[in-house]
Specification:
This protein is mostly helical. The protein has 10 helices and no strands. It has one domain.
Length: 245
């Protein structure tokens, strides 16, 4: 439960979801990839529900855009869940290390992202379909939110402000995580007790994180998260290449 709470607070504030905190901890603790990813998705869903409720009260969610991107991502979540059955532990750690590095880069560049003129042309929608599908795959495969894809997509490509993009990303994750949960459950991956404990902590953390998002010094938070992601990524890659130590 404490792990879910911490992950929920940080994930809600950054807009990435808490999976990028939970999954490395679970994986380094000896959980197989399918179990770590599926348990994390339950917590991600819980966190996104709590965050969405709070952000909805603040009127910071673009519902129409969020529903479209969520629908584009759902087929990817199905594929990601099936792929997770066949991925080896070293490969999972190696790929997840790369995801963490990418997330760190996103967090570093987040304040530098500038929205452009709002653009939902046919060409942009085609690009959004591909990006959302990819976000769905990595979300279900690794048990993380697709925020590292959805937020830059909405800000840089579509032209949404950061103030609206992070909350809308949590709204999208609610559907993406639910889809991944269903498929992983059908495949028999999750441990429901562990998933439930993580979900409770993540739900409370999501509420706290969404309220703190307007109060906490974002620069210090970003620096802390980037350092943690870097250390975790290095540990995962080292384990994948030379084994645990």
């Amino acid at each position: 439960m404490p792990l879910g709470f911490v992950a929920g607070v940080i994930g809600s504030m950054i807009g990435l979801g808490g999976g990028f905190v939970m999954v490395p901890v679970l994986t380094l603790s000896g959980f197989v990839p399918t179990l770590a990813a599926s348990d994390s998705l339950f917590a991600a869903f819980s966190n996104s529900v709590a965050s969405t409720v709070s952000y909805a009260k603040q009127k910071r969610i673009m519902y129409s855009l969020g529903m479209k991107l969520a629908l584009f991502a759902i087929p990817g979540t199905i594929l990601g869940a099936y792929i997770s059955d066949d991925i080896s532990v070293p490969l999972f750690k190696l790929l997840f290390g790369a995801v963490l590095v990418s997330s760190g880069v996103y967090i570093y560049l987040r304040r530098k992202m500038e929205s452009r003129e709002y653009n939902l042309s046919k060409q942009m929608m085609v690009f959004a379909v591909g990006a959302s599908f990819f976000a769905g795959v990595i979300s279900s495969l690794f048990g993380i939110g697709g925020g590292a894809v959805f937020v830059p997509l909405m800000v840089v490509a579509i032209g949404l402000s950061m103030k609206l993009a992070a909350p809308t990303s949590q709204f999208i994750l609610m559907f993406v995580a639910a889809s991944g949960m269903i498929v992983h459950s059908a495949l028999g991956h999750p441990n429901y007790y562990e998933a439930g404990m993580l979900s409770i902590g993540s739900f409370v953390g999501g509420i706290v994180g969404s309220k703190l998002s307007t109060r906490v010094n974002e620069q210090r938070l970003r620096l802390f998260v980037i350092i943690v992601l870097g250390i975790t990524a290095a540990k995962l890659v080292t384990d994948a290449l030379v084994g645990p130590f």
